[in-house]
Amino acid sequence: MVTFVDRVTLHLRAGKGGNGCVSVRREKFKPLAGPDGGNGG
Fold this sequence. Notes:
Elements: no helix or strand
């Protein structure tokens, strides 16, 4: 049986990721009902 060995070299670089976003929960009688969870980014 023949055995093959493969080698791979990866060079990765990530971006900054941005500032995230802000969103608010919407309810029927409250136009701005407060934050709806999460922490952005």
